[in-house]
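Work Package 4 report. The design task specified in the project plan requires that, given a folded chain encoded as structure tokens, an amino acid be chosen for each position. We show below one input record used in the internal validation round.
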């Protein structure tokens, strides 16, 4: 099993960064903690607007420098996030400046991400 612990900022949340399998471009999905547990996908970021098109999600688009940002009209809620582990997708959990790789390990076919907000 892959275990990663990163500080979770309630406002900024955390990201899941990877190279998009179809567009072959860097991408980052941004999540926020949900009251009562779990988390919600609220935006997708990439320098390639084709990555945003791929998701076919309703929302607003804007540019932040060289990056396109899609903010979802209705955030998608998750209790956990199951990821297929592959050498191609080399996903990284990102919270502020902290980064934790979620790469496949010998014998591990999937990675499960569960988020808990740090106690204040």
């Amino acid at each position: 099993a892959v275990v990663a612990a990163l500080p979770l900022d309630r406002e900024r949340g955390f990201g899941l960064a990877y190279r998009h399998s179809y567009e072959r471009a860097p991408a980052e999905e941004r999540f926020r903690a949900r009251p009562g547990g779990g988390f919600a996908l609220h935006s997708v970021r990439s320098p390639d607007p084709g990555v945003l098109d791929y998701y076919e999600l309703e929302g607003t688009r804007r540019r932040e420098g060289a990056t396109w940002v899609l903010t979802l009209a209705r955030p998608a809620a998750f209790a956990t996030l199951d990821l297929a582990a592959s050498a191609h997708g080399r996903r990284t959990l990102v919270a502020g400046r902290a980064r934790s790789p979620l790469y496949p390990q010998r014998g591990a076919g999937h990675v499960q991400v569960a988020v808990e907000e740090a106690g204040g």
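Strands lie at 14-19, 26-33, 39-46, 59-64, 67-78, 81-84, 91-95, 98-102, 110-113. Validation will be extended to a larger panel in the next phase.
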